[in-house]
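User: I'm curious whether this sequence folds into something compact or stays loose and floppy. Could you predict its structure so I can see for myself?
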Amino acid sequence: MPDAPERPDESDAVAHDPWQGDARLESHFGAAWPALSGFHEMLASEGVLRGLVGPREVGRLWERHLLNSAAVVPHLPASGSVVDMGSGAGLPGVVVAAMRPDQHVVLLEPMERRVDWLQLVVSELGLANAEVVRGRAPEIGLTTDVVTARAVAALDKLLRWTVPLLRPGGTLVALKGSRAQEEVDASRKVAAKLGIAEMEVREARALDGAEATTIVRAVRR
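Assistant: Here's the prediction. I'll summarize afterward.
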């Protein structure tokens, strides 16, 4: 007998994105809007096919991923180079590159398939200020003014990996979850040994009504 047709898995159904079509997005992002709307489309299609975005995340791309990433941009220094560590699908690095066209942004990623994806994104979106580099932080021999990181590692480990990349006065901006303050408190000794002059937790929103983004900001002496 022929196999019975597979029933769709309701758990993988794509929910409607409440932010899709919201006119405030284009107004908020201004000149960055063409790149970010294009990035959204790439994540929702090719990103899912490549396993970089889960199907159930498609209906939450703006809220949980793009707006979440955009919220960090006002907390970055206004000038200087940026390294987005463990860039993965391009969050927040691609968003930063789109919103800060005058800053050089390195998308640092060790996995080849993700590097291929990031190169495609940079090419398709025309992000002339973005550079994709394959490698890990201790191996690349780069120094930078800013490091961004999202869902890369626990804060104490992240500090060990990223602080050596920072020039004196450089800033780490890490997107963290609800336990950010606990991570900061647990990392004070490591931070002091590494020469971190200040470290704080901030809360940010790209737009009213969006989920808050929790940020840990650390500055090297």
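Summary: Confidence is low (pLDDT under 50) at residues 1-13. The chain is about 35% helix and 20% strand.
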